[in-house]
Amino acid sequence: MMLEILRVSWRSIRSNKMRSFLTMLGIIIGVMAVVLSSAIGVSSRDSVTSRVESLGSNILTIGPGFAQSGGINHGFGSASTLTVANATAIEKDDPDVALTAPLASDNAQVVFGANNTSAAIEGTNQNYATIKNITMAQGGFLTAADVTHSANVAVLGSQIEQTLFSGYAGSPVGQQIDIQGIPFTVIGVAATQDSTGFENPNDGIAIPVTTEQNLLTGSTTVSQILASAKSSAVMDDAQLEITSTLRVLHQLAPSAANDFQITNQATILSALSGISQTLTYLLDGISAISLLVGGIGIMNIMLVSVTERTREIGIRKAIGARKGIISTQFLLESLTLSLAGALIGLIIGGGGAIVVGQISKTGNLLSPTAVILAVVFSVAIGLIFGVYPARKAANLKPIDALRFE
């Protein structure tokens, strides 16, 4: 009997191919959207993670605190509280800190031959390249001797190198550039790095922090200190050690607030991943709405089908078909439409997920969880939205159905 019900249901669906396809379209779009939104969510999360991790592993960023004048709080970063000596003490005294790199930032006019541009000048030390995972395209990075002797040497970002040495056929390494009218020798060019936030690391120049302080800014403080923890497991311990060390160095009273701030990269990564996950949930919600719309379309067409086949239902009931058989037939038709739409949606969505993975270079992004959820929701929608038409068909009285014109 079940095979006969299946045969009749399939014949009914095939008799109206275009209408059946249009009915399935809502389910196709919904399932496709679920699979693609999951792939896009995974891709964006992996992209955010890789970009943050490309800045360096286990990084703690120490910034100056806030200054007050006339009772007005000028906000974090307004105080000049950090020094090169602070960075040295943190690296020396804190057991969970591997390396530190002070940063003294400034903007200056840079000239080479007939080319000139404004560039971000970053005064730092030899640890900066290790902390930030910088690789060199040409030459080398700063050395400890360069920092100790305040050498007039510079490491160019890939973009600033192209700007300054446009039209120059030779290697920039060994050439002399002028920064604010002061000659510097180029000792290296960094490989292109991922740009994050509002800063472009490829458009800057690194020089020894002592040189920047002595020749460019004249300041004894630094804008930031980068600290690299020995492992991700000791990030929190390293942060506590740095806090304790700086409070002692800055002679802060026990009740006084910190005159510095520490940003944990793991916290930033967690926050960004949370945002990415929220956006994924939003896309999934929109996809679920598409599936509901598809379910309403199925119910609408099944009600039309019941009306069109009223005489058929009456004849079948007149010759002995029970309510359960009629109800099962229409429920199977609804479920078949839903599952067929889900299958087509999975094929299209899966292909789209593969394309997204290739474009983003993150590999296979087809989530088994998304596939299972899409199929489960499709089956549920087919059953839920097929119940009312099936019950309506099953409850038709044979005599009324036979008299229907």
Overview of this protein structure:
- The chain is an alpha+beta fold and 405 residues long.
- The chain folds into two domains: 2-51 and 270-403, no CATH class; 82-258, no CATH class.
- Helices cover 56% and strands 19% of the residues.
- It has 13 helices and twelve strands.
- It has helices at 2-15, 17-54, 84-93, 128-131, 144-148, 158-164, 209-217, 235-249, 265-308, 310-318, 323-360, 368-394, 398-403, and strands at residues 59-64, 66-69, 72-76, 97-112, 115-124, 136-139, 153-156, 176-179, 182-190, 204-208, 224-229, 260-264.
- The strands form two sheets. It has a six-stranded mixed barrel with strand order 4-5-10-7-9-8, surrounded by four helices.
- Helix 1 packs across helix 11 (323-360).
- It is elongated, with a radius of gyration of 34 Å.
- It starts with a helix and ends with a helix.
- 36% of the residues are buried.
> Rg from C-alpha positions?
34 Å
User: How would you characterize the largest beta sheet?
Assistant: 6 strands, mixed, barrel
Large-scale geometry = elongated
SS element count, helices: 13
> What is the number of beta strands?
12
Given the helix and strand composition, which structural class is it?
Answer: alpha+beta
Strand percent estimate: 15-25%
- Overall number of structural domains: 2
SSE succession: HHEEEHEEHEHEHEEEHEHEHHHHH
Give the strand order, joined by hyphens, for the main sheet.
4-5-10-7-9-8
Mean pLDDT: 81
Distance between the termini: 29 Å
Q: Spans with pLDDT under 50 lasting ≥5 residues? A: 69-78
Helix content estimate: 55-70%
